[in-house]
Amino acid sequence: MRRRLFEWSMATIAFASLVTAPRPAMAQVRAAVSGTVVDSVSRRPIVGASVSVAGTTRGTVTDDAGTYSLRNIPAGSVTLRTQRLGFQPVSRSVTLSEGQQAEVNFALVEAPRSLTEIVVTGYGTSSRASISNSVTTVQGTEIENSPDAGIDGALQGRAAGVQVTHNAGNPGAGITVRVRGSASLSASNQPLYVVDGVPLIREDNSQLDVGGQDVTGVTGLNPDEVESITVLKDAAAASIYGSRGSNGVVMITTKRGRTGGSKVSFNTYTGMQSVERKWPVLNATQYLEYMNEAAAESGYGDDYFGVVGVDDSVDTDWQDEIFRNAPIRNITLNATGGNDRIQYFANGSFFDQQGLVTGSGYNRESGRVNLDFIANDRLSFRSSLSVSREDHDRVENDNSINASVGNAIAVQPYFPVRQPDGSYTSPTQGLEYTNPLALNEFNSVESRVFRSYGNIEAIYNFGPSWKLNGKLGADVLNLRDLRWDSPRVIGTYAAGQAGVATQGNSTSNRYLVEGFATYDLPSNDMHTLSVVGGSSVEWNGTEIDYIQGEGFGNEEFRYVGNAAKVTVYDGGWTGDNLLSVFGRANYSLLDRYLVTASVRTDGSSRFGKNNRYGVFPAASFGWVLSDEPALQSLKNLAGVKLRASLGRTGNQALLQDFPALQRFGKAHVGEEPGLAQTSLGNPDLRWEATREVDIGIDLTFLGGRFSVIADRYVKTTKDLLVNRPITSTSGQTSILQNIGSIENRGFEFTFGAGIVQPSTTNGFSWTSDFNIAFNDNKVKKLYLDQPFNTGIRDINRVEVGQPLGAFYAIKFLGVDPATGDAKYEDLNSDGDINSGDRQILGSPHPD
């Protein structure tokens, strides 16, 4: 397999070399054109409208006055085309003679956003009017100045069917994104993020467990750099990414330069965060009354808790002690400009967010340079480079006896935060839990991320119809973890070990070589056809080191190298390769009958030799019903487009890279080195495959001022990869196999309204958008349909007929008014409340 991937990669590199080879220009460049682009109604200048010469790479954009200038245009008959988001594109044919300085002005007519919006579809773009898939686009202007560390958080509430959940409350924490529900048991359910054509490393590389506070790769992208975000939701749209499309694809396009001179902009915001609502708890008097009443009921006396060293004047609100008002700020400096040969966009930003919990915070410094260079009428280059540094300061929380927020809720309020000598009150003075203030002040969890990613792309135009693209991309991420558990936190393990230090380093990299060709049928009144086809090779690798030590002579020396003894050490490398061939065709007849078909074949080193390659086809159909001649009289009132799609995508985002192979690990006996089997191999492992059917309708009213987009989908994932229990006589207790299926079905609705549109005398506008989605998740099949439990303390259930991860516990019936004791349902009627009384209590998924 290694040799085969190498042969494919060399072929792709050769293809990319062909793309970048310069050719002599075929035409003489002797004329120039300039002019203005304005709104046809208000006559206001339109800023940022693109003006290009059809069939060439020659183009520019209008400046703040709506003017443009194009030089070095071939003499003869040429077609000038201008377009801008929100307006209908216009083309004009002009005949130029040598040395002529022609003036060509344009007046654009406003058009419905749902028709003119440019949609990034993967290996190309399309207008909203010409697509028949289910996609959602969020413009960069909608998320800039959004107080979110990453673009995943900025997506919340902006796209129907896209569920965004914050995993924890600390700044910069990882965010869970689900596109049309969860579709896998053991593989990732996160969507694929693609930035300027390069798939992004999103996985959590931190080796520290801090109660669900993961460190993901999406926060490194500054939302202020983003031009647009397109979410490919249905399988027909996402299938162009094949084995990584089951969970949807988030296409991110960053801002690029424009002609018309240099422009520098400075943008900043600042704000203050506060706790919206604290957990309601008893004060000291109420707490003592309650506990003494309980003690009396149990025969311990009626003042059991109210005598031992309790100061009646102490009433500590521990939540007030650990929570704080926390500032957040962002500073961004942009520079953009260029001429008809070179355009650039440069960005530098600083984002800082203090956590609401003492001891927590996040900051990021990032920079980006995007450069476009037009070598001649046929050859052009595009490059993007981003560099960032992130600092995560976390405090332990969730699922821990040393969780600061949990302890602040549970600890007794009749104890002070500090003792008279200034030391923190601790369990040795009577606290039931570790002092949360001491945890946050003396302990630290620091994660530092350095990251650089980008690409360089060459585009060669053979003529008006044929174009070749070659791309080299890379994403390199280094994460350093440093944790210190102080001996000054009384009641913890570290207090008895003179301190515990942990350090982890992980480096992940992704390298991409890609080449594809595009063919566009010359324009005519009957047909439009666009075909793209190509191949790509991707290499991924991760290397980790981990070490932990105990016993420190001084708290100022916190690195493991100063420890008296090393207690844990580990390290290793893992990686995978992906080889792909893909193609897509978009066809339109009379601009009202739309067909899109795509197919991708992926070969992954993660799967066994029997099923290494997977094929992922898709097709979609659209019918612009309102363009039918019989309905022309209604077109100005309403526009109707019907859509239907069917596609197959896969999931190869496994938690391990070599599941098909027998694996071995260290098995040292004393100082004698050795190996022992850690897992059984399964060469028959195959792809998790998702088949999705989508039916939708796009409606516009009153010339596009109002719009409705509705979708109904059924998404079924089969061949789930599950660790099935086996007899331990085999040497292992489980084996990874393809077992079971999950179904997601639902509705999505998006409503848009241009309530007030600008006029010739007033530039004021008002638009509103609303979306809502309903998803029903259900497990359809398991191995012998046997259910099993997952999650913390097995609180979640995987069972046929139930939603994935349904809550599984003993049912609480209320409180016995006679005794104050909790009452639970005795499900099996055996007179005892135990694990045998557990039952499905609800779904973790929102309605």
Detail the topology: elements first, then pairings.
Elements: H1 2-20, E1 29-39, E2 50-53, E3 59-61, E4 67-74, E5 76-83, E6 90-96, E7 101-103, E8 106-108, H2 113-116, E9 118-120, E10 125-127, E11 135-139, H3 140-143, H4 151-154, E12 162-166, E13 175-179, E14 192-195, E15 198-199, E16 226-232, H5 235-238, E17 249-254, E18 263-273, H6 284-297, H7 318-322, E19 326-338, E20 342-354, E21 361-374, E22 379-394, H8 404-410, H9 436-442, E23 444-461, E24 466-485, E25 500-520, E26 527-550, E27 565-589, E28 593-604, E29 613-624, E30 638-651, E31 663-666, E32 675-679, E33 688-701, E34 706-718, E35 721-725, E36 734-738, E37 741-756, E38 766-781, E39 788-790, E40 796-798, E41 806-810, E42 812-815, E43 822-824, E44 838-842
Parallel strand pairs: 1-7, 1-8, 14-17
Antiparallel strand pairs: 1-4, 2-3, 2-5, 5-6, 9-10, 11-16, 12-13, 14-15, 16-17, 18-19, 19-20, 20-21, 21-22, 22-23, 23-24, 24-25, 25-26, 26-27, 27-28, 28-29, 29-30, 30-33, 31-32, 33-34, 34-37, 35-36, 37-38, 39-40, 40-41, 41-44, 42-43
Helix pairs in contact: 8-9
